[in-house]
Amino acid sequence: xxMVELEGVTKSYGKNRVLEGISLSAEKNExxxxxxxxxxxxxxxxxxxxxxxRPDKGRVIIDGEVVDDSGKTYIPPEKRDIGYVFQNYxxxxxxxxxxxxxxPLRMRKLPENEVKKRVLEVAEMLRISxxxxxxxxxxxxxxxxxxxxxRAIVKEPKLLLMDEPFSNxxxxxxxxxxxELKVLVKKVGITTIMATHDxxxxxxxxxxxxxxxxxxxxxxxxxxxIYEHPVNAYVAEFIGGMNVLPLNxxxxxxxxxxxxxxxxxxxxxxxxxxxxxxxxxxxxxPVRVLGGEFRGEKWVYVVDLGLDRPAKIFSQSRxxxxxxxxxxxRRLYFFGEDESTTRIEEIV
Amino acid sequence: MASVNDLILVVLLLSVxxxxxxxxxxxxxxxxxxxxPPQHPTLSNYAYxxxxxxxxxxxxxxxxxxxxxVIISLVLAIPTSYAIARLPIRYEVWAATVALVILAKxxxxxxxxxxxxxxxxxxxxxxxxxGVALSYQVYTLPYTIWLLTSFFLDLPREIEVAARxxxxxxxxxxxxxxxxxxxxxxxxxxxxNYLNLWNEYMYSxxxxxxxxxxxxxxxxxxxxxxxxxxxWGIMAAAxxxxxxxxxxxxxxxQKNISKAITGGIKG
Lengths: 348, 267
Known about the structure:
Shape of chain B: globular
Number of domains of chain A: 2
Structural class of chain A: alpha+beta
Number of strands of chain A: 20
Oligomer: heterodimer
CATH topology of the largest domain in chain B: MetI-like fold
Radius of gyration of chain B: 23 Å
Structural class of chain B: mainly alpha
CATH class of the largest domain in chain A: Alpha Beta
Strand order of the largest sheet of chain A: 7-8-9-3-10-11
CATH superfamily of the largest domain in chain A: P-loop containing nucleotide triphosphate hydrolases
Radius of gyration of chain A: 24 Å
Number of domains of chain B: 2
Largest sheet of chain B: none
Strand content of chain B: under 5%
Distance between the termini of chain A: 43 Å
CATH class of the largest domain in chain B: Mainly Alpha
Number of helices of chain B: 11
Order of helices and strands of chain A: EEEHEEEEHHHEHEHEEHHEHEEEEEEEE
């Protein structure tokens, strides 16, 4: 049994069905990321786990205890022992950073010397000891986020929930803040569920990613598994930005002739990843280079395969625009009528 | 060249300054003299108002009654407003509650005068500070609920959710989060109540018959309506005295008023 279990959770707002019977299980000390575009119901999932929102149907179990069961059982948020980091941090504006972090401990009626000890400890860990006497309005965005994280973990909750915790962080700092948070969470050893719309963030942090679309989890697996074996074209495109292109007879002919891959009937789309694509002198798919940009470690080129949408490829060297080259994908994905993945072909 | 806006501003300013200036000048007129500016300015009017009439006692009464009324209003309105702003009740019930508050706010205060007097009389509360303060609730309570509700509605909900998740029950949330964060709103409602009630006449005159408990506004009113000769100099002096606390008050809290209006909440 996992630390957190959702079983058949359904939620509608009016006529708008947000969650269609989702199930989810997070192991103890696992870092789980709920990934989905905005408006897909990520926050609703976190709110249902925290108890702020009640599901229409389904069960929520935290650490073996049923905290919500289709309206029968209901344990309110203040009794669920959950740490929560809000997107806008939701720090108490009238309290200093110290009092913000101390608040959950004081609500537990811990003796003041114990409160002080634990606040200082967690502040040390998050490197905010020097701003503990500041009010939130006097803190930088990054410091506010640390205070929010400190407040969430200081009571050593069973579960840490984070709703887009990096969206208000300066993009230049995001990667390092992300890294620090991951290290911290693993060090403290706490089951974490984070919601984000940023696939890169999800990939870099998660032990497992739950990909949410149209109220359902369409794939729930380790990031590298999702990257390698996307269940459908949407996942392939969303995770890692695969080129997903329509298959026509001309292209099917080229694939068979050049790469020796036979297209079966019923396969409507094919795809390949920019990073899996080499520029070849001999065999390969002929493409026209539309243009590109220099990214430092690589060039990113947009190429035209004669289809209604272009593809992206990476290159280590400059390629003249408006020339025709051949590209050789090392791995090809095929998708059927319903866009689900039919097969993956390695090109040797 | 002065624009139309400037002209309007000047007219507005003059319409305030001219009567006020006249009042100041009149207050220095010795009895029997009716020339402005005064030929023989004197402070005797002020001396009379303070020494003979004991007007400072009436001003103090006003202050006490209002303070009491404001405290009662806050004690009742804070939980009420918080409930209106936050209780998860059906929309129809909520709308009906708000409609009642608006209704109470728009009832002409005079229409409640008789029932309230009757009620206070039965409770033996007429002629007491508490009675006057209770009668003032006609003005202060709907207004306070109204203002605090809109203030509570504007508070970011996340910090309350955060407090819940931090283990705070509803009373702890009100005490540790909502109230401290709402101080600008509470200050503004207190200020507005003081300013609104400082000149209150109707209830102050009806609920109190003993001259010891009369408010400043009632004494001023009686100076005009008394059957004796109207002593303009004395009346002006008393008026000036009664303006001073309000003036000082506004000057003192001006920063808070603007703070309350712009809302001092920042994440």
